[in-house]
Amino acid sequence: MQVPSLSRRNVAIFFLLSLGLLTLFHLKPYSTLTDKDWSPLHLDQSLTEPPQPHSTVQPDDASDQLPPPPPSYKEDQTPAPPPDACTDVDFAWLASDRKYWDGWGSKAMFMKPDGNFTRKNVYLPEGDSICVVVLLGPIPAKSSIKPEEHLGPMDSIVMTAIGRWNKLSIELKQHARQTNVYYAPVTFMHADIYYLESRTEYRSYFWETPALHYYRPYRFLSQNKLAVRKKQTDDPEPLLPLCDFRNSQHTTGSWMRKTEYQRTYPLDFFGMFGIDQEDHAEDNRLFVPDHCRPQYISIGQAAQCLLDKTVHVYADANVRRNLKAFASGNRWCNDHQDQACVCNDDAEKHEKWVTDPTVPLVINETWHADTRFYFSNMGSIAVHDYKTEISAQAARVDPADIVILGFGNQDIEERSSSPGHFASIFEDLLLYLTTEVYPTQTIVVRTPQWFCCGTIESTSWNAGRSNAFARAVRLTVEKYQDRVLLWDVHRLGIPDNLCVSGGTPYSKRNVLNIENMMLWSLLCDANSS
After folding, report:
1. For the chain, is the Cβ count within 10 Å smaller at the N or the C terminus?
2. Cβ atoms of residues 295 and 243 within 8 Å
3. What's the pTM value of the predicted model, to 2 decimals?
4. What does the radius of gyration of the chain's CA atoms come to, in whole angstroms?
5. Rounded distance between C-alpha atoms, residue 393 and residue 263, angstroms
């Protein structure tokens, strides 16, 4: 009786061991897969996969305890950028969070100085930097245009930081992985309480072909504010260098109200308001560079700087307005309430130097400078090849000491001209001019307008397209040495300073004086070096 019992027990043990080995043999190892292409645009996935805990988020209070986000993605092949105010921001968590952002509406915010998220207002010492972030909802319609064909990001967003006394334009970058996230490290040089005003103009590269799509920008404000405080120190403020607009850092700045400028800089030339100072204020604001002191250059000083010089100008009506302001001693438009006076002089009877490229604008009678500007009105370089025309004009008039080029605005209006196409043509044209026509002369290249081009009153194309064309000009000029100078009027752009409401792409009248002061700084520094 005992043998069968042992036999049955052995059979049972053998069966269990066999079953265990069979299960172990066929069992596949479990691995957690992370979809590196995950985007908040896939809302069904975001609802089924809540964000993972993350230990670095510091809530404002116990009730604000946030679910930790998934680990940030590592950029394996892209070299790490230098650290800035946005380095420690966890963009992956921001994009995946569904407690404070529903994933649908657009949202702008100031991060904490340490890069962490907060719903509360943020405090920052004057002169420090902070990260601003925009989260965009789903794309309503996808474009078939490939990203690598463009000089701009997928979405066109206009952002302005607005305080009681100051305004500054902010250029956002698109995140490499979280493509609905835009961000920028921003330095705030002046004490104030700021909020972010943003406008999404176009999504999914539709800014490339604005004539085919309605211009219906979506405006939204930041969820929190930034209080910038003056630094508490007994040390005197360091004296900033005089502005040299050949340095790209010297072209960034804020627009400050005149009363605040007088209070902050009471002994500065621009703080002592008279006629000359009023000529450089637009909408009761002055442009204040972040990293340098603006140097006032009067019309007389500019004329003496250009003494006996001949200048060849190939540009559109924007530069014609710059020259007109110079020639009239800033007195061509004195009625600043008249929109036609401030924004549109196209219908006026122009001097002969405007219509005949062989007749110079002579700065001589008043300033005794004997400076001659030969102005040739130029259109789109994508539509018309101007090489032959410029060569003929250069041979027809007095030899040039200085050349001013202003291309791009007319090309922005052309539906068939993409930023990449324009960049290729402009690079070829500039190479031809610097080697074949003007091999020794100083050449100044003006960027396109910040916002181009007014098509119907109170509307326009978009800033995203203008940004891309301006970037094409900057990248081309960077390839040359000091002989080719960048006149970066695009940096002066904020919505308040433009004539879009008047149906033109021009800068308002007094902004021209600031643009001209940048030009005189470039030319006078070039002549003295």
Report:
1. N
2. yes
3. 0.81
4. 30
5. 50
User: Which range is least confidently modeled, 172-186, 310-324, 364-378, 437-451?
Assistant: 364-378
Pairing relation of β-strands 156-162 and 285-289?
unpaired
Is residue 325 within 8 Å of residue 489, measured between CB atoms? Answer: no
Note the maximum CA span of the chain: 134
Token output for 498: 């433009």
DSSP state at residue 121: -
Q: Which two tokens stand for residue 58?
A: 């510091």
Q: Which of 164, 165, 167 is nearest to 186 (CA)?
A: 167
Q: Among 202, 229, 36, 215, which residue's Cα sits nearest to residue 123? A: 229
Sequence letter at residue 29: P
For 259-524, give the CATH class.
alpha beta
Could you give the CA distance from residue 250 to residue 281 in angstroms, rounded to a whole number? 19
Contacts of 168 (CB under 8 A, 6+ apart): 160, 161, 186, 188, 253, 254, 255, 494
* Secondary structure of residue 376 in the 3-state scheme: strand
Neighbours of 93 (CB within 10 A): 23
Which whole number is the average pLDDT over 6-34?
53
Of 346 and 7, which is predicted with more confidence?
346
Asked whether the bond before 453 is cis by omega within 30 degrees of 0, the reply is: yes
Structure tokens at 217: 């920008």
Q: Where are the alpha helices (DSSP H) in 159-274?
A: 258-264
For residues 9-34, give the mean pLDDT.
52
Q: Taking a C-beta distance cutoff of 8 angstroms, is the pair 488, 245 a contact?
A: yes
Alpha-carbon distance of 287 to 168, in angstroms, equals 10
Digit-coded pLDDT (tens) for 487-511: 999 999 898 888 877 778 888 888 9
Look at residue 9 in the predicted model and tell me its pLDDT: 61
The domain spans of the chain are: 91-229, 259-524
- Tokens read off for 331: 């007195």
Of the listed ranges 42-56, 80-94, 261-275, 410-424, the least confidently predicted one is 42-56
Name the fold adopted by 91-229: Immunoglobulin-like (2.60.40)
Q: Following DSSP, what letter does each residue of 399-438 receive, concatenated?
A: PPSEEEEE-SHHHHH-TT--HHHHHHHHHHHHHHIIIII-
Residue 213: both structure tokens together = 């799509």
Inform me whether the pLDDT recorded for 64 exceeds 90.
no
pLDDT computed for residue 228 by the predictor: 98
Strand order across the 107-110 sheet = 107-110, 129-135, 181-187, 173-174
Backbone angles phi, psi at 11, to 5 degrees: -65, -40
Burial string for 238-267 (b: 16+ CB within 10 Å, else e) reads eeeeebebbeeebbbbbbbbbebbbeebee
